[in-house]
Amino acid sequence: MDPSKYGVRPSKSLGQNFIRDMSVIERIVDGAGIEPDDMVIEIGPGLGVLTSALASRAAFVTAVEIDGRLIPVLEETLKDYGNVRVINRDILKTDIGQLVEESRSEGLFSGKVHIVGNLPYYITTPIIMKLLEDNVPADSITVMMQKEVADRIRSAPGSRTYGAISAAVQYYCRVSKITDVPKEAFVPRPKVESTVLRLEPLKDEKPQVKDENMYLRCVKAGFAQRRKTLLNSLSSAGGIDKETVKMRLEAAGIDPGRRAETLTVEEFARMADSFSDEQD
Ligand code: SAM
After folding, report:
1. How far is the C-alpha of 262 from the C-alpha of 172, rounded, in Å?
2. Where in the chain is the domain with CATH 1.10.8.100?
3. pLDDT at 236
4. What is the structure's pLDDT at 280?
5. In order along the chain (280 residues), what is the average pLDDT of each group of 10 residues?
6. Which architecture characterizes domain 212-279 according to CATH?
7. Virtual CA dihedral for 99, 60, 146, 165, nearest 10 degrees?
8. CB environment 167-204: b (16+ within 10 A), e (fewer)
9. Which CATH topology does 3-205 take?
C-alpha cells in the first residue's frame, strides 16, 4: 500500500517502512499459526495491510500504533473489520497482559494469543526484551526485524554472532525462521534486509532458575566485554570481586577462564543460580 495515497509522509524516526508485497503478508500470517478462536496483538499496524490479513484469520485483533497521524488512516482501511481495536499508544508502555485479560473477559476470543508485527527496527531489541521479561501471555511471537538482528537471535554458542540477545531470547523461547524478506518488499525501501522469526515462549520446558533477573544480569555482564574471560567481564561489569566470581563459577562447574560466547543457555542458568545462592 502506498502511504502517499493517504497523505502520510513516512517517518524515518518511527521506523516506518510499509509492506507492499502481499506474499510477505501471507507468509507472516501463515507463520503465526492463527486459528479462528485466537487473539492477535499487532505491534505497529502502520496503514493496516497486515492488520486486515490478521483480522481475516483471528477472532479478535488489538493493534498498538504510536503515530497519531495513522489512526484516521487505520479507521478507513479497517472499516470493514468489526473485530479490530486500534490503540494509539507506545508498545513499550503498554501492559499487554492487561489487554489480553480484558479481551478474554469481554468474551472477544477464547483461544490462543499471538503477537505479530513488522517491528520498528530502531527498537527491535527493547520490544523483544520487554515481551520476554514481562512474561507476556502469548503462545507465539511472529515478528519481522533486521536480518542481522534475527541472525544474532538464532545463533548458537561458539558462533561469532552469539551474544547477549541470543542467550536471552533462547532462554525464554524456541526460535524458528519463517522467511527472509528483501528490501524491495517495502515502501519506502529500508537500508537493510529483513527476516521474520517465530518465537515460541517455552513454558515448563524452560530451564528453571531461581531468579530470571539474575539470569539476564549474568548474560549482560558476561557479554559486556565479549573478548574477556568470564572472570574478568563478570567482575568488572557485574561489580563483584574476583575471588567471589571465581568461587561462584567453580561452584556452577564453569571454568572462569572461558568466554561468555562459549556458554549454553543451561550453563548461564547454572551460573545465575550460583550467584543467586551468593545473595541468600
Ligand atoms: N505493520 C505495517 C506494515 O507492515 O506495513 C507497518 C510496519 S512499520 C515497519 C513499523 C510501525 O510501528 C509503524 O507504523 C510505526 O509508526 C510503528 N511504531 C513505531 N514505534 C512504535 C512504538 N513505540 N509503539 C507502537 N508502534 C510503533
Report:
1. 19
2. 212-279
3. 87
4. 64
5. 85 96 98 98 98 98 98 97 98 98 98 98 96 95 98 97 97 98 97 97 90 95 92 87 94 97 97 86
6. Orthogonal Bundle (1.10)
7. 40
8. bbbbbbbebeebeebeeebbbeebeeebbbbbbbbeee
9. Rossmann fold (3.40.50)
Domain with CATH 3.40.50.150 in the chain: 3-205
Cα-to-centroid distance, 121 and ligand 1 (Å) = 9
Q: Which residue in the block uniquely carries the three cell numbers 518488499? A: 185
Residues whose beta carbon lies within 6 Å of some atom of ligand 1:
14-19, 43-46, 49-50, 64-67, 90-92, 118, 120, 123
Task: Supply the DSSP string of 218-273, one letter for each residue.
Answer: HHHHHHHTTTS-HHHHHHHHHT--HHHHHHHHHHTT--TTS-GGG--HHHHHHHHH
pTM: 0.95
At residue 4, the pLDDT reads: 82
Task: Using most ligand atoms within 8 A of CB, pick from 41, 91, 194 the residue to mutate for ligand 1.
Answer: 91
